[in-house]
From TrEMBL:
Protein name, per record: Alpha-acetolactate decarboxylase
GO BP term (any one): acetoin biosynthetic process
Family: Belongs to the alpha-acetolactate decarboxylase family.
Gene: budA
Cited NCBIfam families: acetolac_decarb
Signal peptide: none
Pathways involved: Polyol metabolism; (R,R)-butane-2,3-diol biosynthesis; (R,R)-butane-2,3-diol from pyruvate: step 2/3
Gene3D superfamilies attached to this UniProt entry: Hypothetical protein, similar to alpha- acetolactate decarboxylase, domain 2
Native species: Companilactobacillus halodurans
Domain of life of the source: Bacteria
GO terms of molecular function: acetolactate decarboxylase activity
Top-rank EC class of the record's enzyme: lyase
Catalytic reactions on record: (2S)-2-acetolactate + H(+) = (R)-acetoin + CO2
PANTHER family listed in its UniProt record: ALPHA-ACETOLACTATE DECARBOXYLASE
Keywords: Acetoin biosynthesis, Decarboxylase, Lyase
């Protein structure tokens, strides 16, 4: 039986900062570690939402695509879903939702949140795939596409990382979104007035997988970069 207490992470957000954007894991391999997750493609090729074992990519045009086994990623979080209802919310705003979740759980371990319901407004983003030589994360994110939708039903899929792991992941919440109609989604920048059931899955183990076969990563000197500053600007 798959271990539902493990959060598997391929790559780190830190490696994206200087533009180490090679795809270093295939979707086929990633899906051996879970059926639910988020990520981005090689060259920051869109935003990924994995639900029920199906990997959906929101590209820079806002189109939602099912990707194949050969799709590669420089960064991803994935786990085997085993959510339990935490609470129900009605017309809640983003800051209040995050505050409520943290009041009902601990901020000192990794967990995933899934909120399926109705949102009065959602704003997402995705980035156009870049090619070598890759730009930095900050420069690439500056040309991101922004999408907006009102009165939409869908799933907010989020991972929370303790602040002490900031840099390996995003310290705090990292939200992605996918509509029920599979026609809208991406990295969730903001939302308003959400109503639905909030489910929680807590992890006691982070399995961190690094791209040790990727020479640009292995040879790179991170010391000259403001890793945390650039992550916070871009995320």
């Amino acid at each position: 039986m798959s271990n539902t207490n493990i959060l598997y992470q391929h790559g780190t957000l830190a490696l994206l900062v200087p533009g180490l954007l090679d795809g270093t894991i295939t979707m086929k391999e990633l899906l051996t570690h879970g059926d639910t997750g988020i990520g981005t493609g090689e060259g920051l090729d869109g935003e990924l939402v994995i639900l029920d074992g199906k990997p959906y990519q929101v590209d820079h045009r806002g189109q939602v695509n099912l990707v194949d086994d050969n799709f590669t990623l420089p960064f991803a979080n994935i786990h085997w879903a085993d959510y339990h209802k935490l609470t129900s919310v009605e017309n809640i705003e983003q800051a209040d939702l995050e505050k409520k979740i943290l009041s009902l759980t601990s901020a000192n371990t990794f967990f995933s949140i899934k909120l399926h319901g109705e949102f009065s407004y959602a704003q997402t983003r995705a980035v156009k795939r870049s090619s070598k030589p890759y730009d930095t994360l900050a420069k690439t994110a500056a040309s991101q596409s922004i999408f907006e939708q009102k009165d939409i039903t869908g799933t907010l899929l989020s991972y929370y990382s303790p602040e002490i792991f900031d840099g390996a992941a995003v310290g705090g919440f990292h939200h992605h979104f996918l509509s029920d109609q599979r026609d809208f989604g991406g990295h969730l920048l903001s939302f308003k007035s959400a109503t639905g059931d909030v489910e929680l899955q807590q992890f006691d183990t982070l399995e961190q997988h690094l791209p040790t076969k990727n020479k640009p990563y292995m040879d790179f000197d991170f010391s000259g970069h403001d890793i945390l500053g650039d992550i916070h600007k871009s995320e």
